[in-house]
Amino acid sequence: MRIPRILCAVAATAVLASCSAAPVSDNAPTSEVPGYLAVADEAVTSGGTLDLQMTVDNGAPTGLDPQLADVATSWQLMSLVYETLVTVGPDFSIEPALAESWDNPSPTEYVFNLREGVTFSNGRAMTADDVVGSFERLLAGQGVWKTQIGPVEKVSKVDDRTVSVTLSSPYQPFLASLANVPAAVLPMQEIEDGSVDITKEMLGTGPFVVKSHRQDVSWQFTRRDGYWAEGKPSADTVNITIAGQEQARMAALQNGSADLVMLGNVDAPELLNGVRGTAVGTQATTDFYYLMLNSNAPGGKFDDPRVRQAINIAMDRDAIADSALGGLGKPTGVTPAGLPGSCDPALLPSARADLDRARQLLKEAGAENLTFELAAYSTAPAPAVAQVIQQNLQRIGITVNIEQLDEGSWSGKVYGEVPATFDAALSWFAGYADAAMVGKWWNPEQAGFNLGFMEPNAELNTAIDKAIATPAGPERDTALQQLCDAVDTDAQMIPLVTRPALIGYRSDALSPTLYATEGYGNVFRGIADFRLLTK
Amino acid sequence: MTWWRESDWLTRSGLVCLAVLVLVTVVGTVFGIGGDPGAMVGPRLAPPGGEYLLGTDQLGRSMLPRLFEGIGTTLLLSTLAVLVTAVLATLLGIAAGYYGGWLGEVVMRLVEVLYSFPTIVLAILVAAVAGPGQAATMCSIILITIPLMTRVVRASAVTVAERDYVTSAVISGAGWPRILMRHLVPNLSGTIAVQGTYALSVGILVEGGLSFLGFGVQPPQSSLGALIQQGSTYLLTAPWLVIVPGIVLIVAILAINVFGDGLRDGLEPREARSLV
């Protein structure tokens, strides 16, 4: 009689599960301050331990040198220790940070007035020499971010608190490029005398110092004395646990063992709805997913631009945004949707063509029954995006086999070989705070990381250079549209949809400061302000 | 029909359940009932209803055709893997039980090494080496079920090898192929069949476990394990995603086990009733 009992138990479980799916209240955070999802309550007493969870720990693969950090998860962690001359506000405006002000006497000259009272965590005062040395080290190094800071010709110390930067040509995103961790001010004196190895330890001007680190397990940061911003940081200690599994992070949030977690599942707001004491904020970002088509792929699958263009035409960006991202993403061209001056994705050449045109291009290229492998990493929602892409391409007779890999294996497969041997891959870029910045990654000779799978395109490079050099105004809008069109036609890296960032936190334990929009994938941007309600 | 009349209701139920499961899956797949399992046809996470009998998943795909595909994938992968296991385990078991000596020692030590690995650890190891997918799933099932079946086949082969008819065949100068095919394999067939059913249920569990961990079949292909894995996140908000494939998985394993138990009782009636 065991079987009937077991079946009864299964049925009872099903009924219970169905009953528990009762409608629940909205748990999205609300803020009356424009541009913010949440603003920390300054009336709450400082102190306590902040427990966070994030998906991966990029400390080992890329080291701890901020100038070599090339992924947003590294920038998040390093932003607790390192700071930049300028930062971005909630509306993507450039705001003071280590530079309290700056002048722009000509389109190619910037003069930064450094903040007084800034020290590194070893107690030494930050000087203009540190700023100049950091620039020079970045320009001479191998980090990809040197491409982003533009045509810097000369960096010179004017006096102890003033630094002048001269560009060889106008470069519109210059300030926005300085607002990211790889452009942080480093302790150059200690680096040069060898007393600190910043590839292995972190020494910055930021609000926290590293107390301990166990690779792929956890980080512990403690507040530092002498931080320049009075009364900050609020928390005494920040514990960051690396939890790769989405369910584990959700469970930690539900049981209160984490105060704030990064979430990948676009249904997280509904899944956590009604869980007492939790809130889920959906941050609109300028980050976007893109599809890489390897021009060096075995068998020459994508060396014919007509094949790539056909694939681009078949991309239903609305379907990706709706089905894979639950309506939280937006179709985009290479200029991230949401940034001033970004182009309209509906006007792109691929958006104006139909599926018959895509089939015709495939026929002309002799690639009617194309089959290829699409490498996607397993962190949500990337697998869902890959599956929608697969469905999109099925409409024009292309068969896509998805290869789902963990992030380490995926990274090795895509970036580990030159020439690269994968067929296609899915990833996302941070979109930053200027519409032309991310476009620089479409020049492989400057970006470097995509030389293995992308062929330089002179016409596209011209469009990139024009977009970054043109000052804001109608002329720049035109230049940005031309950049979008050139990327769309080149179709070696195809922009798809913006990537939402979901942040779950204990509303009964934490009062965070969270921007409503973010350009550098850094949800910890306001961490110095976070207030703990119960600790 | 004699076996059917002599078997108990539990065994018959098991067989009927299995037959219904296979029939429904074949009919559903061949006639495309519910549409294309990969097509995003409806709203996301729609509950079961008239238009989508089993609801839709997080990408708006109808769960009915995905369930058909999932059952088919799981049963097909497991069955193919167990067939390979049956052939290999029979050869290895006979080599160890009939020929014995150093060959038997080597075979049994290798089998014990495989047996010492926890099931899911071995499966993950295979998936890590071969890469996730159907091939890795099949290899895992084979490597996990071979030790179980080889040990039992060997034990039976030792017994059969001592029977008079085998000794007579040897004395009369029969070659090893004849002894193998005329005397050993026919007398071991009952044991192999019973162990095969047990291995099949283990195979389904391994497939489910591997797919649940993301090392099994790759999206968008579904299997019972993959469906449960994808649905587990939505257990409270969209329980239909996990409950239906979960019930099917339980029913399939139960049916195979009780059928195997009855088969064993029919073929080896003197042994006590046991699932193993």
UniProtKB/TrEMBL annotation, chain B:
Keywords noted in UniProt: Cell membrane, Membrane, Transmembrane, Transmembrane helix, Transport
Which subcellular locations apply to this protein? Answer: Cell membrane
Query: What is any Pfam family matched here?
Result: BPD_transp_1
Q: Which organism is it from?
A: Prauserella endophytica
Q: Which ranges carry the ABC transmembrane type-1 domain?
A: 71-260
Q: Tell me yes or no: is rRNA-binding among this UniProt entry's keywords.
A: no
- Protein name per Swiss-Prot or TrEMBL: ABC transporter permease
Lipid bilayer topology:
Multi-pass membrane protein
Family, similarity comment? Belongs to the binding-protein-dependent transport system permease family.
TM region positions: 12-34, 71-100, 120-146, 237-260
Recorded hits in InterPro entries, A to Z, give: BP-dependent_transpt_permease (IPR050366), MetI-like (IPR000515), MetI-like_sf (IPR035906)
